[in-house]
Amino acid sequence: MAKTLEQLVNGSSSPVFVDFYADWCAPCRSIAPAVKQLAEEFSGRLTVVKINVDKQPAAASRYQVQEGIPALLLFDKGSLLWRGSGAMSYDALRAEVARSLGW
């Protein structure tokens, strides 16, 4: 049985990075390689989840993602540590995650 995003965010032993995106969104496509690289670099230390807002509108609504995608959220132990939106470089994304988690 698949976990809901809320269950994952609240129950994960590692921090959870969520990328809310849409297939039609150009900035979402441009940041996708950076999100993938983040997942690879922090494998085992950070859980990375991609949520398609068109296919999972309830999750997008629950986390107040109405517009401005990609919406990037970082949680630790159920608490929101950082929220960003729009395309950014891998270095900027990595710096925000590392700063927020004290890495």
- Helicity range: 25-40%
Proportion of beta-strand residues: 15-25%
CATH superfamily: Glutaredoxin
What is the architecture at the second tier of CATH?
3-Layer(aba) Sandwich
What is the H-and-E element order? HEHEHEEH
**Low-confidence sequence ranges:** none
User: And the CATH topology?
Assistant: Glutaredoxin
Top-tier CATH class: Alpha Beta
Describe the strand arrangement of the main beta sheet, using strand numbers.
Answer: 2-1-3-4
Largest sheet: 4 strands, mixed
How confident overall, as mean pLDDT?
93
Distance between the termini: 32 Å
How many beta strands in the DSSP annotation?
4
Shape: globular
What is shown here, in short?
Helix content is 40%, strand content 24%. With 103 residues, the chain is α+β, with helices and mostly antiparallel strands.
Would you write up a description of this structure?
- With 103 residues, the chain is an alpha+beta fold.
- The protein has one domain (5-101): Glutaredoxin, CATH 3.40.30.10.
- It contains four helices and four strands; from the N terminus they run H-E-H-E-H-E-E-H.
- The chain has helices at 5-11, 26-41, 57-62, 90-101, and strands at 16-21, 47-52, 71-76, 79-85.
- It has a four-stranded mixed sheet, with helices on both faces.
- The longest helix has 16 residues, at 26-41.
- The model has no long low-confidence stretch (mean pLDDT 93).
